[in-house]
Every structure is written in C-alpha cells, then in structure tokens.
Specification:
The complex is a heterodimer of chains A (458) and B (177). Chain A is of the alpha+beta class and 458 residues long. In chain A, 44% of the residues lie in helices and 16% in strands. Chain A is built from 16 helices and 14 strands. A 4-stranded mixed beta sheet of chain A has the order 8-7-6-11. In chain A, strands 1-2-3 form a 3-stranded antiparallel beta sheet, covered by helices on one side. The longest helix of chain A has 33 residues. In chain A, 61% of the residues are buried. With 177 residues, chain B is α/β, with parallel strands linked by helices. Classes of the chains: A alpha+beta (458), B alpha/beta (177). The interface between A and B is large, with 82 and 66 residues. The complex binds iron/sulfur cluster.
Chain lengths: 458, 177
C-alpha cells in the first residue's frame, strides 16, 4: 500500500509550509509536494483603499522584505500619477534597498541556514538554530548578528524605523538624507565588507562538504529570470527583465516590466495556496523558471562593481552554463551582499545624494500602474488599477517566491528521492528536505499575500 | 537557575514581529544563557512541546489550523502573549473581513490565474469566515501592541519576564508604531 509522510511545519523559513511525500508500493518515493498553507487576500481586500495607502499596506505582506513591497508599490503608484521621479529620490530608493538586501540575505544565511552549513545537516536538531551556532561558533554568529544589524540600521537611519518604514512614497521618498546619516552609513562600510569577505572565504572552503547536497538541491535545467540594467548588469530596483534558457542563451531581453503578462502566466494547483507562475511562451508546466540570487547572477553580464565582479566571475566558473544547483543560492546571497555594500558606498559618495529634490507631486492621471523590483528572493510584481478618485479597484501581485514554486516542488522531490531510504523518515532526511526549501529562502507569507498555517505530524 | 522555555509562533502575520524580536541584535547574546527556544520558526522542533513557560504569538487567527494551533499552545503554555497588532486586534489580516471568503479566494485563484484556475482545497487549511484576534479564541496573559512592537520594548518584555515580573509596556510601544 502506498504510504505518505508529512513534514509540518517546514522550519527555519519565513511563513507557513508543509511537505507531503508519497511512497509507492515498493517503498520508493513517487511524489513530493510543498504546500503553502496560508492565504491572506491582499489582492482583494485592498479594494476601495486609496492608492497612496498601498505602500504602507503592502509592507505588511512581509516583515523581512517590506522595503521591496513598498518599492514595487511606489513604482506602480508613480505610473498611476504619471510622474518622473527626481534623480536623487531614485538613488535614495536604491540606497534603502541596499540596506534591505544586506539584512535579508544576512537573515537567510546566518539565522536560518548557517545551522545546517556550520553545525551540519546531520547535527542534533535541538541545537540546529542560531543559538546553537552562537555556542559552537560564536564569531560567525556574531558576524551574522552584526551584518543584519548594519542592514537594519541603514533602513532605520532613513526612516526612523526598521520594519515597515513607510519612507518611500508615490513620486519619490519622504525625506532627504542628512549629512550626519550619510557619514554614519559610510563609517559602517569597512566592517560590513570585512564580515562578508571572511564569510565568503569560509563558505567557499566548506563547499567540499556539501557535494551530495549540491548534486541534489534542485539541480536540474530550467529557465531563469531577473532584472538587468541597460548594460545587462545586475540590477535590483530599476532595470528591465531578461530571461535565459537552461544553456544560458538569452531568450528575451530588455523586456519592459509592464509587459509581464505577455511573458508570465500564473497556474493554480489544488494542493497549495501558492500559485505557480510559468514562462508563457513554453506553457505550463514546461515553462518552469527560477528567480532569486543565483538566478540573477546567472542572467546578468556582471555586477558592475569591482569586488562583486571578481566573485561573480568565480561563481560563474562553477559550471559551463548557468549555475543549476539551487544550493548555490547561499553563495550567491553572499555575493549580493558584497554588491549591495559596494553600491551603497558608491551612492553615498554621489554629489547629489543630499539634494532635497526628492519628490514629485501629482494627482492620479492614469488608471493602471505596474511596479517591478528584485526583492531579495527574486522578481516582485505589483499591478494596480484605480478609479477616477484614485481608489483601488483591482490588484495582482506576483511575489518572488511564487516564481520559484515549480522549481521548489521539483527540488523537494529530487532531495526526497535521494535521501529517503526505506519506509521510515529519519531526521537527516527531514532536515535536507527542508534545507532544499531553505536554499530558496522562500518567503511564504509574502507568497500568499495570498498564504497560511502549520500543524505537526509525521 | 533553569532556563526559561520560550516558544514563538506565527499565525496570520507578516513575520515582522519576529524580525523585531531579532532586532534586539547583540542583546540576544546576553540572554542566550537564560533561555531555551523550544519551538518556533527559528528552530527545528516539529511539534509544540509540553510545559512551555512563555509563548510569543504573532499574527491573527485566520484559518482552521490556526484555531487548532492556538488551542494547543494555550493548553501547553504558562504565559501566552499576544505579540503585535495582528495578534491583538487582527490588524491588516482583518481587512479581509469586509469581504466574503469566496470572493477573496476567487480574486487570487480564479480571476488572477491564467491556467488551472481553481480554489486550492487539498492539504491546505480552510479560511475562517472572519479573521479574529487571539483572545477571541483563548485566554491571553499579556498584550503587546505595535506593528511591529519595537525591539527595545521586546527586550524589556523578555528581561522582565525572566526576572519573574509581568511588565507594564504602556509607555514602550503603541498600536501601529
Ligand atoms: S503586527 Fe505588524 S509587524 Fe507584526 S505580524 Fe502583524 S503586520 Fe507584521
């Protein structure tokens, strides 16, 4: 008789997930599914709210990447206003985003995944958490705490608040940067660089220990998507969409994000509140693609900053084409932290950065707007429609994690097949099945702005 | 002194309250010896254990699994804390109460889908007709408003609890902030 295992909740990820694994009559894994079990309904309940409320409302989709949601939201609102955002405001938005990438990637790497990476996939589950890392390797844990704090502090210096800062607004940003905060931020750059560089060294040395995980953590060909700038380099806030195939050929480039619906469809599976976006020209489910840190490094021509470019070149030399194993997302996250610190420093030294021209004012001039950014977990789409008074009538959001849904499900199946032997579920198997999900750093409460809740049973 | 057994959980929230907890930064190191994290999204326990001293509950009660979970937490916990505005008032998640559940689900899975449009039903919890704050289901021992509550308030809260005192947080955090 076929047998089913349930792993719930999936731990050390953000949000609510559960995994079911089905064994066939011979006791072999025949199927595995990641269920996202929360649904929140933002796309519906924002109806009737003024568009200008959206940036602070959508921050409440996610406490880890509120800045990404507010950025996508204000870009959609900019389009509804029909304004050109002042240059300094564009730069300040990017600066704020650097703070977010630093803290969010630090959270994923140090607080959520370093227990697997430092203590080991097979270590005692009771200690496999940040407090366990603190005991076993205090200097790494302190580095992680410190790096996340630096990112959060940057956000706080802009907005007076670390979580749900409500500082970016339609048309620009809320307040100029002060000279004092600029100095404060610049003063943190050297320490942040030190931390991320020594972590990169440590991580690269440890890769040897993870051969089996690298081989099986969603290691299969897919398309990839990400934003790139005009030169084709890495871009997080502005930029246009690029898609590449599994061999690394560019199949669509410089696609204006407002055309996203021509390229991306959204499918629903009955077992999950998380939809499964797919690359439309290939259909469903063949149009499986991935987003996020490794995907971004796969699609871009380079980072455009010196230190990150060196690391990028080394990263891309791991494989002849795009880097396929999603295990390498951990690696890519560290490189993106490095990139964000370099961008931060560069922007802070920009002569216009203290300018007080930071906001364009207008009434709503258009009935529809689309805003797209790269969130730490991948490409994030906000699409709004408003009535003549600027009240919301409809919204659609494709959240970073959603883009990876098909790949996460297949990755879970791949790991389950490799690490489940026989008909009992061992902790090392359970942990690896969860760790492949962690490698994507999914943000499941984001993904079901439309997402739901765990219960435990095996 | 034995370590305080602390659990944290999120129901229908955004994880922001948990992030604010982490925003105590290095102060985590100072209290690490006095606490044991026995359950929650930051640790690997699959089951909510018995005899928990303190539970920080983020988020509102939104689906049938949340209901089961909060009852189990109440049974096994000494001090249950409504942690953040979503838990205390149902906050933003409660905004869906203006709409019928079917309409909320239809928007996400039928109107805004281009393939296999359908409402997910298999292996996922059912949404309750209304999102409710935690205290409408179980007795709550302490309310901590804020969206999220500031890290300083959270650190004060935990330090006081570790000293065996129930803190007064009225001048440390407020709704919305
Ligand atoms: S109270 Fe605010 S920060 Fe906390 S979970 Fe709710 S929305 Fe997020």
């Amino acid at each position: 008789m076929s047998q089913q295992f349930i792993i719930e909740p999936v731990s050390r990820i953000e949000g609510h997930g559960k995994i079911t694994i089905t064994l066939d009559d011979e006791g072999r894994v025949s199927d595995a599914k990641l269920h996202v079990t929360q649904y929140r309904g933002f796309e519906k309940f924002c109806e009737g709210r003024p568009y200008s409320e959206m940036p602070s409302l959508v921050e409440r989709i996610c406490g880890i990447c509120p800045v990404s949601h507010s950025l996508a939201s204000v870009k959609a609102c900019d389009a509804i206003l029909g304004v050109q955002v002042p240059e300094t405001a564009v730069k300040l938005r990017r600066l704020l985003n650097c703070g977010e990438f630093i803290q969010s990637h630090a959270l994923s790497f140090f607080y959520l995944s370093s227990p697997d990476l430092l203590l080991g996939m097979d270590s005692d589950p009771a200690n496999r958490n940040i407090l366990g890392v603190l005991k076993a390797n205090p200097s790494v844990a302190r580095d992680g705490i410190r790096l996340r704090k630096i990112g959060q502090q940057i956000i706080e210096w802009f907005a007076g608040k670390r979580i749900h800062p409500s500082w970016v607004v339609p048309g620009g940003v809320n307040a100029p940067l002060s000279a004092e905060h600029r100095e404060n931020m610049l003063a943190m750059v050297p320490e942040a660089l030190d931390i991320v560089q020594r972590t990169l060294t440590l991580f690269k040395q440890s890769l040897e220990n993870y051969r089996e995980e690298i081989r099986t953590f969603a290691n299969f060909p897919t398309y990839f998507m990400g934003l790139v700038n005009l030169q084709g380099n890495l871009e997080h806030v502005e930029g246009k969409l690029r898609f590449i195939d599994a061999k690394g050929n560019i199949v669509a480039d410089q696609v204006d994000p407002i055309r996203y619906q021509e390229y991306i469809g959204e499918a629903v599976e009955e077992y999950s509140y998380l939809k499964s976006p797919y690359y439309k020209p290939l259909g469903y489910p063949e149009g499986i693609y991935r987003v996020g840190p490794a995907a971004r490094l796969n699609v871009c021509n380079g980072c455009g900053t010196p230190l990150a470019d060196q690391e990028w070149a080394e990263f891309r030399s791991l494989e002849r084409g795009p880097v396929m194993s999603s295990f390498y997302n951990h690696y890519a996250r560290l490189i993106e932290i490095l990139y964000s610190i370099e961008v931060l420093e560069r922007l802070l030294q920009d002569p216009d950065i203290l300018s007080t021209r930071i906001r364009a004012f207008a009434r709503p001039n258009y009935s529809e707007g689309i805003g797209v950014v790269e969130a730490p977990r991948g490409t994030l789409f906000h699409h709004y429609k408003v009535d003549e008074y600027g009240l919301m009538t409809w919204a659609n959001m494709i959240v970073a994690t959603g883009n990876n849904n098909l790949a996460m499900n297949r990755g879970v199946l791949q790991v389950a097949k490799r690490f489940i032997n026989g008909t009992t579920l061992t902790d090392p198997a359970i942990n690896r099945i969860q760790a492949v999900v962690r490698a994507f750093d999914p943000c499941l409460s984001c993904s079901t702005h439309v997402l739901g809740g765990p219960a435990a049973s095996i | 002194m034995s370590k305080a057994r602390i659990a944290t959980t999120w129901l229908d929230g955004c994880s922001g309250c948990h992030m604010s907890l982490l925003d105590i930064d290095e102060r985590l190191v100072d209290i690490a010896d006095q606490i044991e994290l026995v359950y929650g999204p930051l640790v690997d326990a699959l089951e909510y254990p018995e005899a928990v001293d303190i539970a920080l509950v983020e988020g509102a009660v939104s689906n049938d699994e949340d209901v089961k979970k909060i009852r189990l937490i109440r049974e096994r916990t000494k001090i249950l804390i409504s942690f953040g505005d979503c838990a205390v008032t149902s906050n933003v998640p409660g905004m869906r109460n203006e709409f019928r559940v079917e309409d909320v689900l239809k928007r996400g899975y039928e109107e805004n889908a281009s393939c296999h449009a359908q409402i997910p039903k298999q292996g996922v919890p059912h949404l309750m007709p209304y999102v409710r704050p935690v205290h409408e289901y179980v007795k709550v021992d302490l309310f901590v408003p804020g969206c999220p509550p500031p890290a300083d308030a959270i650190f004060f809260l935990i330090s006081e609890l570790l000293q065996g005192r129930i803190p007064d947080l009225s001048n440390k955090t407020r709704f919305g902030a």
